[in-house]
Amino acid sequence: MWILGLKKEFGEARRWVSKKLQFQKDVDVNLFESTIRLLGGLLSAYHLSGDALFLQKAEDLGNRLLPAFRTPSKVPYSDVNLGTGVARPPRWTSDSTVAEVTSIQLEFRELSRLTGATKFREAVEEVTKHVHSLSGKKDGLVPMFINVHSGLFTHRGVFTLGARADSYYEYLLKQWIQGGKTDQRLLDDYLEAVDGIRKHLLRRSEPSKLTFVGELAHGRFSAKMDHLVCFLPGTLALGAHHGLPAEHMQLARALMETCYQMNRQMETGLSPEIVHFNLQPQKSQKDVLVKPADRHNLLRPETVESLFYLYRFTGDRKYQDWGWAILQNFNTYTRVPSGGYSSISNVQDPHDPQPRDKMESFFLGETLKYLYLLFSDDPALLSLDAYVFNTEAHPLPIWGPA
Ligand code: DMJ
Question: What is the C-alpha to C-alpha distance for residues 158 and 169, in angstroms, rounded to an integer?
């Protein structure tokens, strides 16, 4: 906002938040999505503007989300009603998603720090402590589901860095950074997980030998990679910047190339939601294969998010060039003439990408923000030594010594 000098627009948005944004509503919301998008956004707005209105709104929202943690295990339900405070699991199960219950910590911890009310921090740190000591992991890799009654992992033996597990790994590192790199348990869990990824999930494709992160189901490797996994090069690079092993940076660079190729090798130059890598050494095969059901692009940020980190830390202009190419492709294939952008159903048909008439809020919150930061040559602009970005790209301050 002030960074871009958009004072008038900021004024309008502030008026809207002040007059129209009311959380006293009889509506079920997802705890994770509301935390990363709304609570994270309000906390960031407070830090960037210094305006107490945003903190008041954040505290109100935090209080309304807290009932989700009233479960036998203290692992929160996925959904909570903002008006009535009644929390519940999804309709089909009493499981919560591991990534969801472990990716709300940056925001609740910050809310406690700012308000002095320890209940927010206590609720989420209880979950971190619990997951830290749970059995069912494989060399630091976690399953995708956890039961709110028993507190145990369910659907064990399936490991992915994609949907339902992704930001568990991201928040181990980012909480460690947020807290001034003092919490050894977070660091240990993160380092163990990176070793687990190397040991169980890394392979190279044929014929171009692209390094990718696959999945493991009951001991069977699958060469499937979600576009969501493309947060990982950025996270690995961030860890290396904060003093973690240099091999993490090498792996970040290799995975960054792969994520770029997931975009480049499509006819529109935009990545599909999921790819499969070819492991057969015949030259005729392509490295990146796409199933018909996975051809859509939801305007997700992960590739350009990682490009931003890689460019910040290396200064290598090829990362800016890659991001520029992706932005041009978003403009060509997803921009709607009357305004805005739309998810598309087929990244392999440049003549008819099939717009879906839907733009996720993360396109504005993350994708465009990371592109803006990627094209800036000023490392002091939201410095990565002063801020840590939550998983929805909202910057939160790294805490100084108490
Ligand atoms: C975002 O809402 C967050 O980054 C989340 O962690 C998973 N992915 C979406 C955008 O793709």
Answer: 16
Q: What is the arithmetic mean of pLDDT over 254-282?
A: 97
Q: How far does residue 213's CA lie from ligand 1's centre (Å)?
A: 18
pLDDT of residue 185: 98
For 56-99, write each residue's pLDDT tens digit: 999 999 999 999 999 999 999 999 999 999 999 988 898 999 99
Annotated binding-site residue? 391: yes
Local structure of 231: helix, strand or coil? helix
126 is catalytic: no
Q: Which residue has the higher pLDDT, 90 or 234?
A: 234
Angle at which helices 184-200 and 246-264 pack, to 10 degrees?
50
For the record, the structure tokens of 284 come out as: 């005729």
Burial 223-261 (b: 16+ CB within 10 A, else e): bbbbbbbbbbbbbbbbbbbbebeeebbebbbbbbbbbbb
Written as six digits, the tokens of 263 are 């975009």
Residue 347 structure tokens: 């990244």
Strand order in the sheet with 145-147: 95-97, 145-147, 153-154
Closest of 134, 261, 245, 164 to residue 198, by C-alpha: 245
What the block records as the tokens of 217 is: 């189901």
pLDDT tens for 119-131 read 999 999 999 999 9
Residue 330 Cβ < 6 Å to ligand 1:
no
CB 46 within 8 A of CB 58: yes
Under 8 Å between Cβ of 89 and 79 = yes
Q: Given the residues 79, 95, 107, 273, select the one marked as catalytic.
A: 273
Residues 6+ away with beta carbon under 8 Å from 136: 142, 143, 152, 153, 156
Is residue 273 part of the annotated active site? The answer reads yes
183 is catalytic: no
Which helix H or strand E contains 71, and what residues bound it? none
Is 372 within 8 Å of 152 (Cβ atoms)?
Answer: no
Amino acid occupying residue 98: V
Distance set, CA 152 to CA 149, 196, 229, 278, 279 (Å): 8, 20, 25, 35, 35
SS3 207: coil
